[in-house]
Fold this sequence. Notes:
By secondary structure, this protein is of the alpha/beta class. 31% of the residues lie in helices and 27% in strands. It is built from 17 helices and 26 strands. Strands 2-1-11-10-12-13-14-15-16 form a 9-stranded mixed β-sheet, sandwiched between helices. A 5-stranded parallel β-sheet has the order 4-3-5-6-7, sandwiched between helices. Strands 17-18-20-21 form a 4-stranded antiparallel β-sheet, with no helix packed on it.
Amino acid sequence: MRRSAQVFADRPAVIFGTQSWTWSQFSARCHNLAGALAGAGLQKGETVSILADNIPAALEACYGIPMAGGIINAINTRLDAEAVAFIIEHAEARVFLVDRHYSQVVGEAIAKSSRDILVVDIEDAEAGSAPEFADCSYEDFLKTGAEATLPEFDLDELDPIALNYTSGTTGDPKGVLLHHRGAYLNSVGNSLAWEMPRFCVYLWSLPLFHCNGWCFPWTIALQGGVNVCVRGVDPQNLLSLIDEHSVTHLCGAPIVVRMLVDAADAANRTGSAPLSIMTAGAAPPSALLEKAQASGFEITHTYGLTEVYGPCSVCEWLPEWDELPADDQAVLKARQGVGYPMVEEVAVLDPETMQPVPQDGETIGEVMFRGNVVMSEYYKNPQATESALAGGYFHSGDLAVWHQGGYVEIKDRSKDIIISGGENISSIEVEGVLYKHPAVSAAAVVAAPHEKWGETPHAFIETAQGKDVTPSEIIEFCRDRLAHFKCPTRVTVQELPKTATGKIQKYELREKAKAVEPAE
């Protein structure tokens, strides 16, 4: 940012509605945030939480917090109050920057928390008045740092820059601690892997709380580009912003890509300037790729996890593949690909022997990562850290085959994680809620196909003797106790298949869930 603020001082850096800032202005606001945090007593290595949409303040946090020596803790805006309270407690947050649009859930979270925390209200007149729990407004807070002289940047490359919480196989999320070196390298890797040009225009359709926006806040500064901020992912609004600002790049979960492509197809959008779209997760089907190409969209398929700073593997496209039929191209694009140029190693290994599996496209192993873009640790969780980093590799838990040229293709997940609309859902967390229902004696939750969200939880339950319950009652029970995106969209009441030792055979349920008509 310092370089872009000097070299590209008067070029646009951030656009949000009718507001805009140049790189020198954006840099000054980030400096003011850093000064305000230092003035509020933030010490090196302490955490600053932020819960906000993709608004300018969320981008400023990506710079101002580490500039003050702090650790960014961007919280998922879809979480409920209990999860938010857990995170600010576990992260030991000193300051909490709160988008006024989320004042209700944050107010409930603060009431559940015992922390003495400075709460800063990121004001927005459209979202009502300032919440009572806020200590000051964001703009007033920035003013307190305007004249601050920050200490010398005394940071080691391996000092923490961010603490991101991700759903694991247990109910409570795990805190992924990331360092400056990894964030720097993956930011550069984004630019190289995607061949991003100088002065690109990037639309923030990807939530900034996802792995710090997949490191793209720092990538855009590298290129002196433009950040177009936006609340939500309404496809019509996104198309309007794309045309208005001549957007060149955007990222999104498969559901966002599908919504955007379908909206462009419905509007017969052709002949517009090319738009590069990066997606991660489920592979784009051939029909979607064809519609995207007709609309002038070029889709790049990537793969990664929070523990490796977001996407750090890309389906590196070879020119000779352009001549292949659409279905063959879709098969190739289904591969999660090879490591970014800045990644030391992405490999498919036998988890028992830690030896590479053959690159035959058939032998299944576990995807593992090694190098500078691997997390430091799971915060305050040495046992999980030791397990995840055993043998000198990060164990992703994803099962895959390996193709010639080192191309990885994921086949299944060994973790019971459901990825719905780009969000991780712990099946064990949902099962824990189901077991609280008095009519449920056994429960298992698996991923089921969903036309809109990619996949959603499908709950299979076995009722206690003499008790009955309907699927709709189970869904309502869950909605009263979980964030709505975590709740089952389908419920099947049946006797659950079990092994001789009583373990539920989830593989049978996964196959059954796939056969059920996808939910609307």
